[in-house]
DNA sequence: CGAATCCTTGAGAGCGGTCAAAGGATGTGG
DNA sequence: CCACATCCTTTGACCGCTCTCAAGGATTCG
């Protein structure tokens, strides 16, 4: 019951991640805090094996045989699909608490790469299945979380299909902020080309748009890949509701 | 009980939520065949209430209180989200077997309108919850279907973010065909502006692109909103794998 | 500290959007 | 059953947002 309430609360985040197949089990998700590997309230705690991956390395590739699901405990991961000629679409950025590889398919349908050094829990499918059998409530939890991801994916469709470059970038920054609980200062550990491939733009357009937001005093770009939101209301207007 | 917890938590959303998922429960989906209301192999058979909706009518609107989920038994429905200034993104077109309104949110996150006259089964959330409690396998089935929807949503992100107009239209036509089991002749009951708002284009661009495909002998436009795929291989090359 | 990588900025081009109007299809009333 | 009105589609001309190509500058990492 308390577990269910917690999940429902996560599922109802005003602006959940833009991640895919991402499962935010822990209420600490998104605050930058890492998931604790051994938490009695976490059904996945202790399952599988946990490993630290270096920055800019591949966790699994599109088309690889899919035997496990993964959960990010700390750090950041990007998921993407590529067209034959190299065009790339980043499906989402995963942070602490998010899951990936959940599809019921024989192969992974996207590539997962670390952006920063990342701690990842690898859980064999069989263990996850066993957990769902043992705890039917867990299967419902997974359903709820997957549905939230689907909602986020639909928001992303609106962004990609109908928003201008400035609206896309503003939406992206606000999402990152909301994910950190609405903080003014956010991390941008990923490069401009990652942002571009997530928003359906080019690196040049992302850079130009950020410069424009900076000139308009809506944001301030800080050292170390950080960024401060100076005028959240103006950004929100620009974003057209994420 | 679990339902109560979910609803209470959802009611506390700071921002009206966004949408939901579409699922294909029936293997007969997309063949044009209608779902049978009383099929012993269908766990949803006989649940809720079934009604025929006229063409171009609203089933539910974004923001409406969400008390039921719906399943399309025959006909076609479009799901869309709108930006404040009227820009529209069609999330998807639903056919026989597809479900909508599945999000665990207090409000529907998108609008559902019929394209053609459509038979729709309305199932109260409480009945669906009861079914999941009674048949854990059904919850797993819903999870599997929702995951498939998520994969489709990710393909759509690639389409919207990285494909050209011609690639978008070719992908769209091939998807419709595949949904009908790969038939050469497909139905296009929706208007050009519906297609445009699904692909992130304008009606003019959709029209021009179809004309170009017609000139290139890749397709043939038939009377009554039908279309024939003349060169599936060429379309497939164009589409870059959907 | 040095070198590679990434970011920013500029100039110009092109794809798709906008505006406009003619051509067809659909549906309704006479 | 036909005439007319309305809506949708198609086509054309032009525009502008974003992309492409290019180069200088900043940052990061080994």
UniProtKB/TrEMBL annotation, chains A, B:
It comes from the Bacteria. SUPFAM superfamilies: cAMP-binding domain-like, Winged helix' DNA-binding domain. Residues 163-233 form the HTH crp-type domain. Residues 58-101 form the Cyclic nucleotide-binding domain. Keywords: DNA-binding, Transcription, Transcription regulation. Pfam families: cNMP_binding (PF00027), HTH_Crp_2 (PF13545). The keyword Transcription applies. This is CRP/FNR family transcriptional regulator. It comes from Azospirillum picis.
């Amino acid at each position: 019951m308390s577990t269910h309430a917690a999940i429902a609360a996560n599922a109802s985040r005003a602006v959940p991640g833009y991640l895919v197949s991402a499962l935010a089990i822990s209420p600490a998700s998104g605050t930058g805090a890492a998931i604790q590997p051994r938490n009695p309230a976490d059904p996945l705690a202790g399952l599988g094996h946990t490993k630290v991956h270096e920055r800019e390395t591949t966790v699994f590739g599109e088309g690889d045989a899919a035997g496990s699901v993964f959960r990010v405990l700390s750090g950041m991961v990007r998921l993407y699909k590529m067209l034959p000629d190299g065009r790339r679409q980043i499906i989402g950025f995963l942070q602490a608490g998010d899951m990936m590889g959940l599809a019921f398919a024989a192969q992974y349908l996207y590539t997962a790469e670390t952006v920063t050094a990342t701690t990842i829990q690898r859980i064999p499918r069989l263990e996850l299945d066993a957990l769902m059998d043992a705890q039917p409530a867990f299967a419902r939890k997974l359903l709820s979380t997957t549905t939230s991801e689907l909602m986020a994916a639909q928001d992303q469709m609106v962004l990609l299909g109908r928003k201008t470059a400035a609206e896309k970038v503003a939406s992206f920054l606000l999402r990152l902020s909301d994910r950190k609980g609405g903080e003014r200062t956010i991390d941008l550990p990923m490069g401009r080309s990652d942002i571009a491939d997530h928003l359906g733009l080019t690196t040049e357009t992302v850079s130009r748009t950020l410069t424009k937001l900076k000139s308009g005093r809506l944001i301030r770009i800080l050292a170390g890949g950080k960024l401060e939101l100076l005028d959240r209301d103006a950004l929100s207007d620009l974003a057209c509701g994420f």
